[in-house]
Protein 1
Amino acid sequence: MPPKSKAAPKPKGTEPSKQPTPTPSPASNTTAVPATIAARSQFRYDDSRPHDAARLKIGLAGLPRDEQAAWISARFARTPAARTRLPPKAQRELWRQVNEASFPVRALRGSKHSWGRDRNESEVSGYSAERFDEREGRRAQLTCLEVASRGFRERREREGKGVRDIVTGDKIVVTEAEVEAERIRRGEMAALRSELYGTVQGSFALDPEWDDIVPIPQGEPEAALAAIAYPADYDEAISYLRAVMLKKEYSQRCLRLTETIIEMNPAHYTVWLYRASNVFALKLPITDEMEWLNKVALVNLKNYQIWHHRHLLVDNLYPTLAGNPDELARFATTERKFLTQILVQDTKNYHVWSYRSYLVGKLGVWGSPEELKSIEDLIDDDVRNNSAWSHRFFLVFSDPAHTTPGLAATEPDPAAPQDITDREVEYAKEKINLAPQNQSPWNYLKGVLVKGSQKLSSVEDFASGFVKGLGNKDGSEAVQSTHALDLLAEIYAEKREKEKADLCLRRLGEKWDRIRIGYWEWRRKCLEEA
Amino acid sequence: MSEKSKTLPQELRLATSVHVKYIQSLDTRKDEYEYWLTEHLRLNGLYWGLTALHLLGHPEALPRAETIDFVLSCQHENGGFGAAPGHDAHMLSTVSAVQILAMIDAFDDLEARGKGKAQVGKYIANLQNRQTGTFAGDEWGEEDTRFLYGAFNALSLLGLLDLVNVDKAVDHVVACANFDGGYGVSPGAESHAGQIFTCVAALTIAGRKNLVDADRLGKWLSERQIAGGGLNGRPEKKEDVCYSWWVLSSLEMIGKTHWIDRDQLIAFILRCQDPENGGISDRPGDMVDVWHTLFGLTGLSLLEYPGLEPVDEVYCLPKSTTERILGK
């Protein structure tokens, strides 16, 4: 800035322009409005320093005489020496020359200013003036919102401290409306930040409801052997989970937090357990929780935490149903409906089936005709569903009404009723006929005969029906079911018809089930040694 | 690869070096979605990878000191280990931790820098329900025969099996036996090869293998082999390489491995490997993962595929480890 003291006379002639007008000047070559703000700044800079560009290129000595003089004068005029060393007359002459040259008296300093980058990593310096002004407008908007948001947080803080309002004298209360306004405000701020800087705001940081919780970030050792990297929003949610689990908070917002995490990663083990704690601590209706769980289960078929969670819920619910047979029956029915629904999607899901056997035991519904019918329907749909067969065996032969406790699984049970054994044998036979090579009903048949203390040979005719011309070398040997042949070998062994048994086993190893020849040969050896 | 395996045709060769590289690369995939989704298996994953490397004859391929540091960083005050730092202690990760430390001979570090063997034993023993003999996975009480087997496995490696009621646990295993000779996850549950392994191995560790109906079970297990040579886990399900372990080790324990077709199974497992990028998948053509890589290799080891270290069929650890610790 030129020294402005009373000693320096006011320059005569035209007032030195305080702002360069955007008109062509000797220093710049632009003939139109600068395209970018960077160019505009450059223009302003150059414009405030006429001759500088030329001087830098060709040196002061290279400039024409009058430009040289102008540059030197302007330069000198800025120094204190111009006032202190020059007598008044010389000063006047100096200023006259400066005015004639119409230099901007104030030369802009070169700026290393950077406007940064936008959300697309483009330099803001490349923006046009309009676009830049628009951006600056939005930045101003963001600043205003930030001020208001800060005001909200301060009000919250004061509320927490029990501070009274200066004007009314009442305790400060942050209303729902204010919280909602803040929530909206933060949404707007996040949107602006995203638009301007591309920053992504975690939804928890956005939510005023979570202001009191300081999230605990992942604290793994540097360069851990098996370090974990998370997407930002999952990371944030887990950080909040750590914080609330540490302080053992049980609340609606924690429940919602668990739901959010489960949605992102249903296999996360701990979050399910914490959710259960919340459900129980808040004494939420178990049936509501189960309805929610049903939805989650249907889209996460391979997840086993869901079924353990259900297990915990049932354990918790059972005492309230225990004394009331109607309630129990109703619950069994709704559960069966859901199990049927989910098994349609994944008929052999091991977790679902093991839950089902747990439920049968818990509710004591072995003898339930509906349960039996439900399993029969599944076998009708797919006679090869081994899970359904296994469950049927459990229903029938683990029913405490007619089961001797403590027996081994493959031991005969004298308590098994004859009529039930017969019924099951007939059922197995019926299903075998539908698909003779299906393994499940053959295993089932043998299991039933053993449990029911029946001789295997009681089904000799049935098994024989699947084998024709055994041992014939003329191509007339036909085996519809290797399991039938296997059973026949056992039957013949039981009847001490060694040669016939051996033939079955030999043909199985040679032709009909060669992959298991090791087993068939072992059976033949046992036969020999018997 | 040994000399013998070099003379095998291309399709029967194990791509050892790429498998080693694959396992080593696992901890560098921190930005993969799959990686953070499986955080709750991190320590287990380390056990799977390390065991595989040992069987491939490359135990040094994962840095020993860092491995010990990571394992110990998962340990809690109560002696139990979580699946990753910051995760709650659980039986399964505790068992993996013990198995890893056993393999790299680091029980001394557990004593010196960790909470010590006794504390680990105490954690595991406290998870047994003294009334029923069953084991829970953690304080939440989910029960599963896998936890029972895990407890027996880890405690016997630590020399602390007497901390638990073995007889009651054995009774529970017997209660999980089914009419078809198999075992389920709980009484009444369907026979499943994975559960069968845990039950039979638990009975073996307890010295009560005689309680298994070996003939019935062996037959059921031999039926797991389907036309392509692969094994499934239950009747009418698809084959999966991991059953090369669950089924095969069970057969090995009851001495009936010859009841399946070895060559066809070897060929199946080898078809499941990715010979370019390494790793083994559940069936040919699918994406590989470290779980199936391990169990494909343990299967091949049990089938005495040349060039692989022998695996202990009860502990799923290199035989060199179990021999060193248990003097077997």
Protein 2
Amino acid sequence: GSITTADGSALVKLGNTTVICGVKAELAAPAVDSANKGYIVPNVELPSLCAERFRSGPPGEEAQAASQFIADVIENSQMIVKEDLCIANGKLAWVLYCDIICLDYDGNLLDASVFALLAALKNVQLPLVTINEETGLSEVNLKQKNSLIIRKHPVATSFAIFDDTLLIVDPTAEEEDLATGTVTIVTDEEGRLCSVHKPGGSPLTGAKFQDCITRAITRHKEVKKLIDKVIKSLTPK
Amino acid sequence: MAVELDNGQCRLRPFSCELGLLSRPDGSATFLQGDTSVLAGLYGPAEAKVSKELPDRAALEVLLRPKVGLPGVLERSREQLLRQTCEAVILGVLHPRTAISLVLQVLSDAGSLLSCCLNAACMALLDAGLPLNALFCGVTCALQPDGTILLDPTARQEQEARAILTFAIASNERKVLMTTTKGSCSVEEMQQCLAAAQRAATTIFQFYRDSVRRRYSKS
């Protein structure tokens, strides 16, 4: 709830890496071929404020690749089912614009972004929208607000690879620059893999992969506990 | 050369490859997997712009052009995957302060596009004669709703599958260079797909050898 003008927001700090996510909800007509689905549009921005290597201008490759990764995580984990965002079949649906902005880049952007997105979505309060039968117009009831139905809680764990011998969890920017590769594993609470993202870099054997996955599953439990604690402390009593 | 590959229980679609078909790039290759085809052109090592040059190694740039429309966020993310995979195999330290550009054009997409791009990229690197420390190949696995693993899925099979995993496997000890997944799967299923992909990689590398041998035996 850090941003008061957004429908949901969260600020996450992983060491020095600071990421803020703001979710804005708007109404739109659903697409013709999927009339019962809403939209979720994630966008990751790496402004020049977060690190000196990012210049201002159109989004660079890292920002675009991160946006695609977040979109894939949402889709793969089914954390928000798009059918839940539909208000009236074929006429009205919610569009959730999720803006993830990095304020301080000290490595491990993907973990922090996924975490911020999850926390912000849990924080979202959507007003109840009904369609008036007679006039056909939508009526927004700002007094009555519901939370989003979040089905799965994906958590990302990133590792930096050094010459296929060493694996470091949660790398800082310095470690990432010196690393010869990275792996990011996204797990959900059932121990299923939502995403295994290894964009090139040094080769890994199957056994090392298995190591990473087991570590990612343990980390998931710790992170889930933290999220639940924070959400509980926010709900007004 | 078209080859029908049968890898025990997992079938791969017929492959076909042509090397050195373009005259301007230093290396070019077109790779066909069933109906999916990608054309790759490689320029390099060439002079780099001062802003882009790296002092100790070659700077690699990958451009992926889709069949229709302008490149979007998905193409950028795939470019990043391809670039980092190629950077891991190219011995860039032998050519410092140079630029290597790899341009891929999607000619037709009938499933397993990313692995076709990876294969075309590797063939283009071979055709250009760049120093590599290993070869790599791309394999796509689709996990069907009933749990069976399909290698090299068609577009239809990809839509019906509940998870699609793409691996780039290196030729030294079949290690994994790149992984990307779509949809969720359990840990055991991922390990099974990885094992199947590593087996398929052996047949693909044999195909690479045969293509290159055929090219140089003619000229």
